[in-house]
Amino acid sequence: MEAVDTCGRYYLRRYRLSRRVLIASVLLAVAGFAAAVVLPTRALAGSTGEATTTGTTGTTTAPTTTTTPKPKIPVASSFPAAGGLLGSSVGVRKSPNPHARVIKVMHQFRPDYRPQVFFAVRATTGSDGEPWYRISIPMRPNGTYGWIPAKTVSLKPTHSQIVINLRSRTIDIFRFNKHKWHGKVAIGAPGRETPAGHYFVASRFVPYHDTFLGVFAEETSAYSKLTEWPGGGVVGIHGTSLPQLLGQAVSHGCVRVANTTARHLKSLAPLGTPILIKK
Question: Can you give the pTM of this predicted structure?
């Protein structure tokens, strides 16, 4: 009678079963780890604004781009407007085009170290798509205009006006569209006439060392016929030590006013005030 040994087969079946369980456990652990890594990554991609696309060949993440809006250039709300240059200098061009011919280069400060006043009469959109100002240029010939980029200056609307009538030889000062002062003036003599036209107050000062100019003076953007006159013949509006000559045509082109009128100019007509000199 033969003896049957089943113990070895039992252990062999148990060994094979244990190995299968071990392999299955490892596969489950790997799958769980992969899920733990992939899911937070997808959630992170969704929170950062990236677009995630799932296809048959895998997952593709496409980054999104954002555009920063271009800052808006401040432009004066009404005209005329006056102010100063933001940089050191700017070329005044023939047309609102960055490639147009330069008429004159204007600086932040004049040769006498006073600030340069910029006087704009209107705005438009240039060939570059940016806002430009049409400005009055203080130079010969009188009435010269040009264009500068609006971003180069800081301008504000003016609120005063000076009107000089050459025929009646009078001056009127307005502030916020209200008439504030009326007075007599002396104007340029024959051959040295005060030039008619549209100008602006380019500078202001107290003539401490020249009583002939009275108690206060304003320099205009107009030029007289006398090129050898101080400042190249700049026309001024100033007080006088000879009030008896008011109402006459006796000056070299400047407009002389009574000292009382000069004091009103000081308080009512700041830099950039438009000036109308009419015949």
Answer: 0.76
